[in-house]
Every structure is written in C-alpha cells, then in structure tokens.
Amino acid sequence: MDLRYLRYFIAVAEDLNFTRAAKRLNTVQPSLSQQIKRLEEIIGTPLFLREKHQVQLTESGRVFLVDARNLLELSDRAITHARQVGRAAVGSLALGVLPSHGGSHFGWLVHRLLSIYPEIHLQLLTLPSQDQLKALREKTLDIGIVAGPIEDPGLEVEPWVTSPILAVLPADHPLAALNRLPVARLAELPLICPSRSKLQIPYETCCRVSRETGVTFSSTIEVDSMQNALDFVEQGAGFTFIPERIPLPPSLVAKHLEMDPEPSVDIRLVYCKDGRNPVVGRLLSLIREQGSGH
C-alpha cells in the first residue's frame, strides 16, 4: 500500500472535513475523496460515515487510524535510521590544522569536501606540527597539515605548498611603501615574537631571518597565536612575520623581504601509511585535482 493513502486518511480523520484536509495536503477535495474511496476499496470496508454536513469515522476507521499512525511513525523511524547508517558509511575525518596558518590554506578544501560529501563528520584540530605528528602516530588524527621537515617511517608525507615568509606592518607605516623590505630596517621596530612552544615554526623562522642576515631584533611581546600577533601589529606595537596567504585586515600589509633566497616554509600533508580511513583518500584526491598552486 502506498504510504500516501495513510497520510490522506489521517488528515481527513483528524479534520473530519474533506475540504480542510485537502487544503492541508495541498490538493483538491474531489481528488482527496477519490483517494479515500480507493483506500476503502483496498481495505474492503468503509472508514468514514459521510452525511450531508458531517464526516465521522466508522469503528473500522478508528481502529485503522491507530495503526496508520503507528505505520507512518515506523516508516519515518526507518528512514531516519537508514540516513544515520549512511552517514556512518560516508565516514568522519579528523584534520590537523597549523596554528600559524589558520584556515588560509585549506578553507576552500574543506568547503569542497563537504559539498561533495555533505554527510562527512569533520573535526578540525588546531595543533603545532609536533603535536600533529604525535596524534597521527596515536591514530587520533587522520591527516595533518604540517610545516617543516618530517622524518617518520610510519608516516606518509606529500608536499603541498611552499609559502614565502612576509613581514606584516601597519598599512600607514613608512616602510609599508616599499616593495621589498630591507631586514635591517625592520630592526627599527619591535618584533612581535611567536612563542617557541606554541608556534615553533614561526619562531624558528624569526631566528632564521636573524641568523641569515645578521640582524638582531628587539622583542618585547611574545604571543601564542598568529591572530594575537596581528592584533598587536594593528595596534602599532611592532611587526611580525607570517607565511604568505594568511588573510589580513585592510589596516595591515604584508611585504616580501629583501633576501635571496627569500625565506619560506614548506607545508606538507601527513597521514599514516597503514591508515584505513577512506575519507583521507577522498581528501587527497581533491587536493591532487586542484594542484598545489591553489
């Protein structure tokens, strides 16, 4: 039996009026009357007593109403159950995110993944590279986006993007007018320094720039997130270094450094060699389709 018959019957049984029930069902009264008659033919007994200005349920109709409601509830429950199983089959993904990069590199990727597989349960974990590697070994992370060299025989590593390191200044600072910044000129400003424990790669980048140029920076503020660093720069407290592609407010500008070669950080995708999560493969396929230059 078509479940629509049950819905038609329940609507008429609740309203005891074919016209009102038809309006609720977005149909016309003659068509609804026909459907109810067809249902009564299938069952083999009248469900309604029809008088000139009144509709009442027969005894059979009252019994059928209870069972019809139970059947529809069971049908809805079965559909919900099937959808839940479907979601589980599609899978989940725990994705590691670098604190220094935020969503700048993979925001498009997450959007694309969810548009193709909307039932995926996606968990984003903001962790430094070393913590991501530890979580990957412990199988609490499916795939990580990490920076710097990685040596672990149990992990698969794929290059993704290389980000030049830029200096961030207030947009109205005199140095912001230069196309490339001499590092010695930056030493005139305090460095908003990334925390060594919380932002290891940005911290090591600052040390690398200082070491390769012989320039010593004065640092008065240490921060544990890149957003805090940008907030302090916006307030005029100094400058900081960031990887390219991190979005900035209009009040800030990012400038390339006058260094050859220009400092950069390699961003890599890391996952377990023996990982069995099929969603990892789907994510990697999307990345390969787009190429590393996104």
SSE layout:
Elements: H1 3-15, H2 18-24, H3 29-43, E1 48-51, E2 54-57, H4 59-90, E3 92-97, H5 107-116, E4 121-126, H6 129-137, E5 143-147, E6 155-170, E7 180-181, H7 183-186, E8 191-194, H8 200-213, E9 219-223, H9 226-234, E10 240-243, E11 252-257, E12 264-272, H10 278-290
Parallel strand pairs: 3-4, 3-5, 7-11, 8-9
Antiparallel strand pairs: 1-2, 5-12, 6-10, 6-11, 6-12
Folded structure, characterized:
With 294 residues, this protein is α/β, with parallel strands linked by helices. It folds into three domains: 3-89, Arc Repressor Mutant, subunit A (Orthogonal Bundle); 91-160 and 267-290, 3-Layer(aba) Sandwich (D-Maltodextrin-Binding Protein, domain 2), CATH 3.40.190.10; 162-265, D-Maltodextrin-Binding Protein, domain 2 (3-Layer(aba) Sandwich), CATH 3.40.190. It has helices spanning 3-15, 18-24, 29-43, 59-90, 107-116, 129-137, 183-186, 200-213, 226-234, 278-290, and strands at 48-51, 54-57, 92-97, 121-126, 143-147, 155-170, 180-181, 191-194, 219-223, 240-243, 252-257, 264-272. Strands 3, 4, 5, 6, 7, 10, 11 and 12 form an eight-stranded mixed beta sheet that branches. A two-stranded antiparallel sheet has the order 1-2. A two-stranded parallel sheet has the order 8-9. Helix 1 (3-15) packs across helix 2. The protein starts with a helix and ends with a helix. 28% of the residues are buried.
Brief summary:
The chain is α/β, with parallel strands linked by helices and 294 residues long. 43% of the residues lie in helices and 24% in strands. The protein is elongated and about 100 Å long.
